[in-house]
UniProtKB/TrEMBL annotation:
<feature type="region of interest" description="Disordered">
    <location>
        <begin position="27"/>
        <end position="47"/>
    </location>
</feature>
<protein>
    <submittedName>
        <fullName>YMGG-like glycine zipper-containing protein</fullName>
    </submittedName>
</protein>
Length: 86
């Protein structure tokens, strides 16, 4: 009878260790996915800002030589603002 109780205790311990191992694996996976999402958001902001700057520079250049840098600055701000909104 003593062996039955010891065997049941061993089984319970093994089940608990397996569940803890599964939880740790899932947490690691969630952390990796969250980090990947953060990197994607940063990339999107940079891309939007760059696109806005290029479009602003192009449109500003149509107004003359001074308009290009000013248009780029305005476009960069607009591009960043739009990535924050959407």
């Amino acid at each position: 009878m003593g062996y039955g109780i010891l065997s049941r205790g061993t089984q319970t311990r093994q089940q608990a260790m397996g569940l803890m191992r599964d939880n740790a694996r899932e947490e690691t996976q969630r952390n990796m996915q969250n980090a990947q999402l953060e990197r994607a958001e940063k990339t999107e902001k940079v891309s939007g800002t760059t696109t806005g700057a290029m479009a602003g520079a192009y449109l500003g250049a149509q107004a003359g030589s001074i308009g290009g840098p000013a248009g780029a600055a305005i476009g960069a701000v607009a591009g960043y603002a739009l990535t924050e909104l959407f």
